[in-house]
Automatic annotation (TrEMBL):
Subcellular location: Cytoplasm
Source organism (scientific name): Enterovirga aerilata
Major localization listed first in the record, in broad terms: cytoplasm
Record-stated family: Belongs to the MurCDEF family. MurF subfamily.
Catalytic activity as recorded in UniProt: D-alanyl-D-alanine + UDP-N-acetyl-alpha-D-muramoyl-L-alanyl-gamma-D-glutamyl-meso-2,6-diaminopimelate + ATP = UDP-N-acetyl-alpha-D-muramoyl-L-alanyl-gamma-D-glutamyl-meso-2,6-diaminopimeloyl-D-alanyl-D-alanine + ADP + phosphate + H(+)
BP GO annotations: cell division; cell wall organization; peptidoglycan biosynthetic process; regulation of cell shape
UniProt pathway annotation: Cell wall biogenesis; peptidoglycan biosynthesis
Protein name, per record: UDP-N-acetylmuramoyl-tripeptide--D-alanyl-D-alanine ligase
Record has Phosphoprotein as a keyword: no
Cited HAMAP family: MurF
Mur ligase N-terminal catalytic domain: residues covered: 26-71
Enzyme class: ligase
Pfam family, any one: Mur_ligase_C
Domain Mur ligase C-terminal: 334-447
Amino acid sequence: MTAPLWTREDVETLGGRIVGSFDAATGVSIDTRTIQPGDLFVAIAGEARDGHDFVRAAIERHAAAAIVAEGKAGSLSDAGPLVVVPDPLDFMRRLGCTARARTAARVLAVTGSVGKTGTKEALRLVLSRFGETHASVASYNNHWGVPLTLARIPKDSRFGVFEIGMNHAGEIAPLTRMVRPEVAVVTTIEPVHIGHFRSILGIADAKAEIFEGLEPGGVAVINRDNPYFDRLLAHAAASNAGRVISFGEHEAADVRALRIATGPDASMVEANVLGRTAVYRVGAAGRHMALNSLAVLAAAAALGLDPNEAAGGLAELSAPVGRGERIRLRHPDGEFLAIDESFNANPASMRAALATLATVEARGRRIAVLADMGELGEMGPKAHADLAEAVVASKADLVFAAGPLMRGLWDALPARLRGAYAQSAAELEGAVLDAVRPGDAVMIKGSKFTQVSKIVAALKRRFGQAQAAATTGRG
């Protein structure tokens, strides 16, 4: 039987007023699609939907109780067990802070312009070799995802890994103060969300907010290869950090890659980890993934874990859905490979995905299906046009482009690479489906708002999945 995570006494101590029969909950959820029996359902009012509209569905799915706002309680009095509070989201934050206060887990936090999710997942794998590890689900890294992840941490966890993201300055600081990490990792600084900042220096400062929550004597893990290393270092020095561990290929890096050999499905890395040599396999393709593995070993070293044992876990790394997942599909005349990078996109991650496409062993053609990158502000048109060199270097044989900003790339491409262009991913879908042939490797990438993921779904519907394939990843 699953041990209780939150009891009636816990909820009442935090100010919840219980209506109906509630004794304990074994989990916390905000989504009736994934809720489990025994969960507390938190009815958060979002921009598009109000969780209070789903309270009855949550109870029908055997939620232990629903946390609802005082003003909604009357209309839901017959729904089932309720925990009535002034503000459900604020109450979930209080659950999260309480969970953090009572856990004995060693806590890590990860941010960065790119690589957050991949690094978080790699840390989950590596730390699980040493003990029970709790980590953020998917990209639950915002104002509700972080407290939700905290509220879910089992009492017996040995490690907790929290991904923290932002679109604007000031968003990371309150979240890292809630998480209070012992180790804080910044993967890299790139012009992502630059449309919300005056310059990339503002992005560096916003990411460096993660150090504000460090526990006294904690460790800041920083990318030594990044041009903004010194700026991040200054922020770390002004925090509670007692130590900084740098990673990268720079000769002064504390965790330094000595050799990286990339392959179509994985990479081999030889690294110096604080004076000790580690040789290991990263089970996800791409040089960027190999470099991110250095951040993982730096974080493990910060916790005093053996680097070679930690590195062993990286062989199991695979790509999450939408971040490099490889899907082998059945064409009537043979199989072809789809590489799903459709979760999101920015100039750095786009270049990384294109570089990985170059390493794919394809019997047929390499095809890139690219949609607009968002939140780039006035640099948007140039950022898209400037991808042309990376596309050529990717060894792509054919390019399909969607969106008004991708028109800049389309116009900059050599004529021999042009497959089709459309104003939207939806309009491009038919051309892509008609173009694929057996042996092709088709990489699909764009920002989430473009809905380029629907092209991935359309490929699956028309051709059907063959067998599990090796995966490549990008966080």
